[in-house]
Write a structure and sequence with these properties.
five-stranded antiparallel sheet; Immunoglobulin-like; globular; alpha+beta; about 25% strand
Length: about 550
């Protein structure tokens, strides 16, 4: 028996020595391999896939966000997270964020390849929307199908064109001069339930979509025309679709959730309900008896939760269409869910407090549910989003005890007062008093208040987007408030980076609606903050 163990040990050590030599001496020339990958998609879920190496190994996948180059004058890959996989694939986000991935193969004794050349996501750089739903001959559509696509950065709305045959020319920004049947621009999210009942005689149509800006100008091109096979016997979809497409994986949702959906054709009234367990009747027509919150809304495709959701657990939500008498049209939608993690006993490093500029959203039609419009998404450190849309400086102050103290962050980024700037009757001193009280509350609880200077406004864009006038004295108020912020111990000055060429108003290239920075603006905010990490204090 002793001889058995001896020889077994010798064999084991020999094998380990061989493996060590192969990996350290690169006998298989693995370090010369630059792993390349492609993105494959199925049912709206995206997977990064590559060829398996000719050696037993596992893979490290590092995710980066590429900076704009505006702040540091050169682009930098900021590391976001690291994942591991034993197979040559990894699920990735389809959100329109400048994500980049580097893949490294690992053996028993460490890396056997160099990190790959950065592999970019196709969803941020695409010139045209990418369809998610495909209706083939084997899986045809009804005469009222949902057409769904990946969102385009900074799109305000979309136009869908229905054709009897492929267009005369793919792409472009104009309707096809041939085979055009109809089009609509009244689409304010990345999906639309088409009404094709006028085309009963067709067995197959084609559809394509393009993104539009605030003034209905094209953003990019039409997508490649997608075949749309029809089956007149299929029942019409009769419930809205929770718009959980293009989610960012493993990212925290804001403290105040937003629920969004793809609406039913012609239906303008909706109700959303929230539960802490799956509904008893998944596709019923009546409210669930155990719902914890519900809200009705008209002429929109999203609802902002009025309550914070700080308690750990899984939350379920669904939406139904309503008629004028509040009767359900069709049934409740499928349920969507989100998870609130339990809080660690340790203090968190950072949180962000403020109004909609912090909460997220941009390009008018994109709510905070699209995390690409939140500056906290682009920070290379974890930062809990405590923003709430619609806040004034005073309402931000009022919820400090409720929303900030339970988390007790070491650092609190504070950006609030933009709605107060544009409000008639609110003075600069009113805003300063609120900010001063916020600072006092932070210091009283051992939290470092880090103020961000307020951004300029673009009143013309605000009026066009929201039909809301801006106080004529907003510039004076902005100057006074930011002067106070710059006199504090801890602040980050973001204001100078956001002016137009004339140094007068918020740059239209960074904000569609004149108030909320769009994706590049939110990226810049994160970059500026990260350049000033010296004002942060470390975890105790």
């Amino acid at each position: 028996m002793k001889h058995y163990f001896f020889f077994t040990g010798i064999i084991f050590l020999t094998v380990l020595g061989c493996i060590f030599s192969v990996e350290r001496m690169d006998l298989l020339s693995l370090r010369q391999i630059d792993i390349t990958a492609t993105v494959e998609e199925s049912n709206g879920k995206s997977t990064l896939m590559w060829e398996r190496l000719p050696y037993p190994c596992y893979y490290r996948i590092d995710t980066y966000i590429k900076t704009t180059g505006t702040i540091t004058e050169e682009t930098i890959y900021e590391h976001i997270k690291t994942e591991f996989s034993t197979s040559p694939s990894c699920q990735i986000s389809s959100a329109s964020i400048p994500f980049y991935y580097r893949i490294t193969a690992y053996g028993m004794f460490g890396a056997v390849t160099a990190p790959s050349t950065p592999i970019s996501t196709p969803y941020f750089t695409t010139k045209a929307p990418i369809p998610i739903y495909h209706y083939t001959a084997d899986h045809p559509a009804s005469l009222m199908p949902f057409l769904v696509w990946h969102s385009i950065p900074n799109a305000v709305l979309y136009e869908v064109e229905i054709l009897s045959a492929p267009p005369s020319k793919e792409g472009g920004t104009e309707h096809s001069p041939t085979n055009h049947l109809m089009s609509t621009q009244n689409i304010f999210t990345n999906g639309w339930q088409a009404d094709l009942r006028a085309y009963l005689t067709y067995e197959k149509l084609y559809w394509r979509v393009r993104a539009l800006g605030l003034k209905h100008e094209p953003i990019g091109e039409f997508s490649v025309a997608e075949p749309l096979y029809l089956n007149k016997s299929i029942e019409f979809p009769n419930r809205p679709i929770p718009n959980t497409y293009d989610q960012i994986l493993n990212f925290h949702q804001p403290l105040y959730p937003v629920y969004q959906w793809i609406p039913l054709n012609g239906v303008t009234h909706y109700e959303v309900e929230l539960l802490t367990e799956p509904p008893a009747e998944p596709h019923g027509t009546t409210p669930d008896s155990k719902r914890i919150w519900a809200e009705k809304i008209t002429d929109t495709n999203s609802i902002y939760d009025e309550y914070a959701r700080p308690y750990a657990g899984v939350y379920y939500w669904r939406v139904r269409g309503l008629d004028a008498q509040d009767n359900t049209i069709g049934t409740w939608s499928d349920s969507a869910s989100f998870t609130v993690d339990s809080k660690s006993e340790k203090r968190i490093y950072a949180a962000a407090l403020g109004d909609s500029i912090t909460h997220g959203g941009g390009a008018i039609s994109s709510s905070p549910a699209f995390l690409e419009y939140s500056y906290t998404t682009y920070l290379p450190f974890e930062c809990f989003n405590l923003g709430r849309s619609g806040d004034t400086s005073h309402t931000t102050l009022e919820r400090f005890e409720q929303d900030v103290l339970p988390l007790h962050p070491v650092n609190l980024l504070i950006l609030t007062g933009s709605n107060s700037l544009r409000a008639i009757g609110v003075t600069a001193q009113d805003i300063i008093n609120d900010l001063d009280e916020l600072e006092n509350k932070c210091r009283a609880h051992g939290i470092r208040p880090i103020f961000l200077t307020l951004l300029p406004l673009n009143p013309e864009r605000i009026l066009l987007a929201f039909h809301s006038e801006t106080d004529l004295s907003w510039k004076w108020k902005l100057t006074a408030v930011n002067m106070w912020i710059r006199s504090q111990d801890f602040y980050i000055d973001i204001e100078p980076y956001f002016y137009d060429m004339q140094k007068s108003i918020l740059d239209p290239r960074l904000s569609t609606d004149g108030l909320h920075p769009d994706i590049d603006g939110k990226r810049m905010m994160a970059e500026i903050i990260n350049e000033h990490r010296d004002v942060f204090q470390e975890l105790p």
